[in-house]
Amino acid sequence: MAITRPGKPQAGRDQISRASPPGSGVQQEIDRALMGAYRVFAREHPRWAQAQFDERFLHSRLAPLLAAQTGPKGALTPVVVVQLWAGQRPWFNAHTRRAAMQALMPAAEEFLSLLAAELAWP
Predict the structure, then answer these.
(1) Are 39 and 61 a contacting pair, CB within 8 Å?
(2) pLDDT tens figures, 68-100
(3) What angle do CA 26, 89, 80 make, to 5 degrees?
(4) Degrees to nearest 5, angle at CA 115 with 25 and 83
């Protein structure tokens, strides 16, 4: 599930851009939504929360991408989330990396659903 808003763009969350400085209302909303979604995610998926799908990952990898989204089409998809997660750690071999990425995919989909609900995005 992509984090997108179908229909006519509106002011506010649809206009999130890189120009939103840290501490701005938009950035605060992103941080609040990420942490709200993460609290539920970490309870339901403690294995992934302990495997670097954590607050540091959210703030360093996902928040900048989420803040850069503009308009109704978003770049944050489960595939992107899993690729970002896999890119932050060393891997013994490509097979292990692929297996971990496939195993994370359903949890990444759930995280994005939780995030969309936190942001009140349909």
Answers:
(1) no
(2) 875 345 778 999 999 999 999 888 899 999 999
(3) 45
(4) 110
Please tell me the distance from the alpha carbon of residue 86 to that of residue 88, in angstroms, as a whole number.
6
Burial per residue of 15-30, b for 16 or more beta-carbon CB atoms within 10 angstroms, e otherwise: ebeeebeeeeebbebb
Spatial neighbors of 91 by CB under 8 A, at least 6 apart, are 97, 100
Q: Which residue type is seen at 17?
A: S
Residues of the chain with pLDDT under 70: 1-24, 70-73, 121-122
Distant-in-sequence contacts of 46-53, Cβ < 8 A, 24+ apart: 48/104, 48/107, 51/100, 52/85, 52/88, 52/89, 53/85, 53/104, 53/107, 53/111
